[in-house]
What we know:
Elements: H1 6-17, E1 23-28, E2 31-37, E3 42-47, H2 54-69, E4 73-78, H3 79-82, H4 85-98, H5 106-128, H6 149-159
Parallel strand pairs: 3-4
Antiparallel strand pairs: 1-2, 2-3
Amino acid sequence: MGSPNKSEEKVGKAFKKSGLSVYYQYSVGPYTLDIFLPKLKVCIEVYGPHHIETKRQLIDKARQEYIEAEGITVYIITAQQANTADEVRNLVNRVLRENNAPSKTKKDKDAEIFNGLQNHLDRWVNSTGFDTKPPETQQPVSKEKAPKEEDFATLLDKSFPIKRRSKREL
């Protein structure tokens, strides 16, 4: 797998933001795909000006037929379109819609994290015997049942471990 050019990189980043794995310069038989989305079995080709030539169009047609015969759907965007945020966004939405892939926005990802934290907090509260009723209806909590800050921090550490990297990994 090689390095993407700037136009391919812009398109690939947009698909990564939607939660998909992206491979650049992926080989399929004798051909190299600009961008491959394995989960959807989709290829994105970014066409530069050389794809206008008649001879190149014949090669591109044979190439696309081969790739589609391998069960991969091909989408084409020009390099000029790939450098326009609206065009890239439209392509991402079209690919996701046509391939029944739910897109994950930052809001969706944040909601997942919040819900996970809320579940852990609820479990912690339940495990400590902490009374969650409104203050006017609460019974006094004995010192033995009072939650401790370090307990919650420990629970979070266990629930969301941080992978520490050694200097060699960086």
